[in-house]
């Protein structure tokens, strides 16, 4: 093939890529070279580390497996990893100066499982430092730019992942979701992303932020592409103490998510012209308040009406503690961050200050120099709420509110609905730097995603329209399920995407 420029973008799904590879229309090495060229030429700052030889070695191995007839389900598919998954060969910095030159001696479980499935990694993707942020402006290596408008944020913390997929730099990418960091950037970049039930995907080798909240999830253009990745990375891992052996009685292993998807899609097919007949969609009244922008509200309403046209029924539900998810999260998450980040002391690994007089000053200077402002802010908040005299007043109370938020969701599912739908964000992507003078303003943008994370529920974002100036910035619809319902969520999203084209729209080349 003489022209391989943008070759990887000629196939609109992982399924199409896989068919082309197995039919020998294209090789994994050709796809890798095409994607590497696009990533290196991009001005979005989505990638932090690219090593072409490492990528090509994986592509050659995929081609060999394809030729031998023993290729994995993702053989030759070009993907990339958020820079909080440790990787051999590629640096793992968590977008921080603290880990600027760190290279892990092992792969994270998510990275390992995707590699075993044959996926070809293009490198490491930019993110908010230690995954702390909602706009990808907290990276020590500069912000990622939104492919739809380079003057706007892509969302965070997995902004590099969402931007890379939206711009066609990779077929899919890994992300992490602590308080909405897969769903929110997916929404703002016009792609799809899913956060699975907490504990269903291994956290081993994932740089920790909030241990009771962090969960890995994929970002891709279509729900079916998300299925391809999520089904591979899901599964029990004995190296992760938070990993689940069973999911509502079923073994937590690859194939579980696909089985749920196939069963739901079969039921939809049997329903005929109204594939979602009998599906009850809960719409929380608290999600549609004065804080929701009109353009986002219109796009969400149009999506809900489309689901009704497919046979679903809309029911009003209440999640009365939605507003309390913000203070609860911003007590619990910083407390866990304070504990997790205490390991970066300049002694064992990470940045060490060049000048110091004693051990105490070495630790203090190393941390002050290595961590950025947002990370230092959250460490200070977390240390404060865990300190003597304040633990009961703040941290313990936040955990009680967390339990109440879980109960709110469970009551809605038990009495009223099968899934919950609403906005992912209150507004479309904001301009870069707009909240520079108010560092906590971004926290308010997480109001629709935090409760899901505190409850450990699965949820996803799918494109459903546009808003903002000239109607050119994407809007995402959030679909929230009960525990272990990832397959069903993906099937519902797939049904929507089979009858709409929002997920197929792409930004102009940047």
TrEMBL record:
Alphabetically ordered keywords of this record: ATP-binding, Ligase, Nucleotide-binding, Protein biosynthesis, Transferase
Keyword Aminoacyl-tRNA synthetase set for record: no
GO cellular component, one term: glutamyl-tRNA(Gln) amidotransferase complex
Oligomer and partners: Heterotrimer of A, B and C subunits.
Enzyme Commission number: 6.3.5.7
GO molecular function, one term: glutaminyl-tRNA synthase (glutamine-hydrolyzing) activity
Location of the Amidase domain: 39-490
Protein name (Swiss-Prot/TrEMBL): Glutamyl-tRNA(Gln) amidotransferase subunit A
Pfam family, one: Amidase
Coiled coil location: none
GO biological process: translation
Family, per entry: Belongs to the amidase family. GatA subfamily.
Catalytic activity: L-glutamyl-tRNA(Gln) + L-glutamine + ATP + H2O = L-glutaminyl-tRNA(Gln) + L-glutamate + ADP + phosphate + H(+)
Active site location: 82 (charge relay system), 157 (charge relay system), 181 (acyl-ester intermediate)
Function comment: Allows the formation of correctly charged Gln-tRNA(Gln) through the transamidation of misacylated Glu-tRNA(Gln) in organisms which lack glutaminyl-tRNA synthetase. The reaction takes place in the presence of glutamine and ATP through an activated gamma-phospho-Glu-tRNA(Gln).
Species whose genome carries this gene: Candidimonas nitroreducens
């Amino acid at each position: 093939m003489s022209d391989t420029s943008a070759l990887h973008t000629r196939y609109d799904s992982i399924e199409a890529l896989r068919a082309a590879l197995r039919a020998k229309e294209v090789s994994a090495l050709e796809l890798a070279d095409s994607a590497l060229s696009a990533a290196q030429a991009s001005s979005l700052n989505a990638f932090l580390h690219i090593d072409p030889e490492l990528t090509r070695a994986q592509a050659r191995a995929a081609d060999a497996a394809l030729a031998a007839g023993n290729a994995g389900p993702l053989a030759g598919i070009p993907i990339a990893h958020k820079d909080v998954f440790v990787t051999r060969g590629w640096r793992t910095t968590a977008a921080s100066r603290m880990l600027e030159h760190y290279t892990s001696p092992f792969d994270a479980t998510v990275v390992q499982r995707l590699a075993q499935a044959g996926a070809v990694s293009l490198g490491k993707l930019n993110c908010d430092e230690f995954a702390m942020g909602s706009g990808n402006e907290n990276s020590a290596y500069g912000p990622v730019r939104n492919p739809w408008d380079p003057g706007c944020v892509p969302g965070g913390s997995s902004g590099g992942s969402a931007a890379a997929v939206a711009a066609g730099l990779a077929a899919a990418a890994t992300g992490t979701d602590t308080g909405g960091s897969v769903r929110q950037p997916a929404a703002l970049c016009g792609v799809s992303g899913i956060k699975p039930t907490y504990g269903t995907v291994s956290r081993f080798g994932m740089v920790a932020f909030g241990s009771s909240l962090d969960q890995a999830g994929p970002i891709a253009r279509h729900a079916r592409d998300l299925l391809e990745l999520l089904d591979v990375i899901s599964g029990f891992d004995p190296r992760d103490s938070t990993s689940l052996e069973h999911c509502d009685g079923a073994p937590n292993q690859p194939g579980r998510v696909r089985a749920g998807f196939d069963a739901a899609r079969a039921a939809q097919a049997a329903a005929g012209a109204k594939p979602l007949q009998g599906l009850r969609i809960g719409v929380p009244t608290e999600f549609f308040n004065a804080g929701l922008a009109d353009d986002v509200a219109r796009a969400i309403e149009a999506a809900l009406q489309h689901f009704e046209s497919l046979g679903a029924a809309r029911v009003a539900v209440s999640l009365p503690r939605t507003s309390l998810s913000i203070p609860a999260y911003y007590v619990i998450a910083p407390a866990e961050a304070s504990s997790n980040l205490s390991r970066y002391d300049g002694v064992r690994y990470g940045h060490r200050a060049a000048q110091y007089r004693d051990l105490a000053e070495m630790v203090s200077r190393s941390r002050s120099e290595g961590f950025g402002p947002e990370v230092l802010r959250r460490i200070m908040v977390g240390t404060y709420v865990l300190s003597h005299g304040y633990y009961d007043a703040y941290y313990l109370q936040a955990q009680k509110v967390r339990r109440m938020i879980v109960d709110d969701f469970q009551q809605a599912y038990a009495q009223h609905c099968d899934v919950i739908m609403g906005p992912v964000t209150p507004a479309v992507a904001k301009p870069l730097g707009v909240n520079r003078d108010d560092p906590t303003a971004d926290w308010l943008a997480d109001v629709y995603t935090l409760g899901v994370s505190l409850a450990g529920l699965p949820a996803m974002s799918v494109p459903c329209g546009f808003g903002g100036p000239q109607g050119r910035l994407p809007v995402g619809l959030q679909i929230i399920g009960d525990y272990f319902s990832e397959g069903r969520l993906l099937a519902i999203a797939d049904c929507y995407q089979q009858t709409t084209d929002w997920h197929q729209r792409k930004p102009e080349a940047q």
